[in-house]
Amino acid sequence: MEAMIQQIPEISKNDSSCGFKETQWMKIDKSEAPNKYIEYVDEITKQDQIIAHTRYSTRQLRLQPGNKVIDVGCGAGKDLSRLESMVESNGQVCGIDLSREMVECAKSRMNHLPNVTVFCANASMIPIESNYFDASRCERLLQHIPEPAEVVSEMVRITRSGGRIVITDVDWWSSTISVPRSVDRINSIIIKDVVFNQHPSIGLNLRGLMSKNTNIEEIEIFAQCMYTDSLTVADDLLWLGERGKMAVQQGLITEEEYNQWRETIEEMEENGSFVFTINIFTVSGTINKKQ
């Protein structure tokens, strides 16, 4: 399988930012505790709603035994074994990620599967020959990428005509909480105005992004509203508490306003009225490379 991989350029410290401010997910290898990101991905993967959505997105790849598929931004490899089971031992699975920590974790988890290859690469410059794969996918990656259209173009380039492309991402701006009017303004700022990734509404705009690429046809969209009535889940997996703290750090609200908001939603959980929702989208299509 290594023959498919072109010479992999060394990823420089500034390679991922392209003039944009780096987000936490673009600086995993520089962080003091990169394992916390791996643990986060592992935990969110266990959620029933995420499991169901991922099953749908992988079905949309329409993989057959013997196919070749790539997971762009594979992280710690959460979906690589599932893809391998779909293409079977005579197929090929490739995973790439910008984080060396994530890649090493994925390699260790996949070392029992000889037809799975994982390596470090930039999704905007994938070092793989054109038209190699039967299908390509990425999940919750584009929200962190400075130029999502570049990643889509690369995924199209390395996928053969007639192959499939499937992209999943979140619309963070669709987050809703059943808050009273007394903290509605504070809540709106926390949900809409906090900056914590490059493209918080990318999920809602996936179809438009993919439709601009003239090599993608038969585009389908699937949307799911995820929800929880657990404040702990909203904090740990959907970054609710973290976004509230970021709003203070970014000067959008005061510490007092944050405390008022936090106390309110904690009381709501105690009395059983807390509900948090967020929308996730999968957009899929067929590659048709025009001459």
TrEMBL record:
Show the InterPro entries listed in the entry: Erg6_SMT_methyltransf, Methyltransf_11, SAM-dependent_MTases_sf
Q: Which residues form the Methyltransferase type domain?
A: 70-167
CDD domains in the record:
AdoMet_MTases
Can you provide one Gene Ontology molecular function annotated for this UniProt record? S-adenosylmethionine-dependent methyltransferase activity
**Would the keyword Transferase turn up in this protein's UniProt record?**
yes
Task: Please name one Pfam family that this protein belongs to.
Answer: Methyltransf_11
Keywords from the named record = Transferase
Recite the lineage of the species.
Eukaryota, Amoebozoa, Evosea, Eumycetozoa, Dictyostelia
Q: What is this protein called?
A: Methyltransferase type 11 domain-containing protein
Keyword Transferase carried by entry: yes
